[in-house]
Amino acid sequence: MNIVSFFAGAGGLDLGFEQAGFNVIWANEYDKDIWETYEKNHPNTVFDKRSIVDIPTDDVPDCDGIIGGPPCQSWSAAGAARGIQDKRGQLFYDFIRILEAKQPKFFLAENVSGMLIGKHSTALDGIKNLLKNAGTGYDLSFKMLNASDYNVPQDRKRVFFIGIRKDLNFKYEFPTETFPKITLETTISDLKETAIPALEFNNTNGERCAIPNHEYMIGGFSTMYMSRNRVRNWDEQSFTIQAGGRHAPIHPQAPKMKLVDKDVRVFVPSKEHLYRRLSVRECARIQTFPNDFTFHYKKVAAGYKMIGNAVPVNLAKFLANSIMDQLKSNEHKLSKIEKAKMNDVLG
Known about the structure:
Elements: E1 2-6, H1 12-19, E2 23-28, H2 32-41, E3 46-48, E4 65-68, H3 91-102, E5 106-112, H4 121-132, E6 138-146, E7 157-165, H5 184-188, E8 196-197, E9 215-216, E10 258-261, E11 264-266, H6 280-286, H7 300-308, H8 313-346
Parallel strand pairs: 1-2, 1-4, 2-3, 4-5, 8-9
Antiparallel strand pairs: 5-7, 6-7, 10-11
Helix pairs in contact: 1-8
Protein name: Cytosine-specific methyltransferase
Catalytic activity: a 2'-deoxycytidine in DNA + S-adenosyl-L-methionine = a 5-methyl-2'-deoxycytidine in DNA + S-adenosyl-L-homocysteine + H(+)
Pfam family, one: DNA_methylase
């Protein structure tokens, strides 16, 4: 089945769908810091670099599905949470504009769990109604998932909108299957001794990295960062991988940070040398990108941003497989019904 991708980023969502057997024939991403990474890792996908607001619907190829994660910063509970009032939040409307014009069999849209906070309830209901009524209409399924339940070694809650075109006569059901938790030790322990610090001004080491992207951001830690523990043990899962390198979790080689006052923590005395941020490659592993997926950037901050904004590949693959299975099951069911009708006609 052919699909197109909007707000593709580095392509975590796209890669998961490809691994599930979908063909990503066309993708769109406006951030120039991401272009090289997407193009080199998805060489068979036609890549459009315009803003979605500038893309006429006729320029988007016909397809079986549309996927994407409209920018989430404006919905984040950790930020200003301006939601649909923010221009970035309004990009959801352009996603719906193209959905309405192309009328694929299904769509998937992903966003942060901050969409669920009370102040956004009216806007969220409005978006749901627009998705349901796009074109001839879609049966909409909506749910918050934690990636840690789907072979992803981190706590990461995100909401998913999945719609099935009404004429297909079924509603997508989120699978109830979950998987055992994957630990940091299983995921990144082999990388422990080989990470290197970024160059001055957090410039990349480039090809000097023996393992691609295995470098970590240098520099101090803000009082906000030091207000809570940022270390997970080897036998635990990671904190959420965020888009800002300065907010990257601390490597599990370090002991958990010591509480010295209300909302004030310090690195354990005499162990300070163990406290480094996870490297770009370690963050990519935790987001379940494969080792041969290389990120291209000049500043390491751009690497963290690409990875932190991505949908974890394993979660994307899990959802893509379930969509594929349900679409095929429905096609088989409709085929049996048509065959039965034909037999009745022929007597």
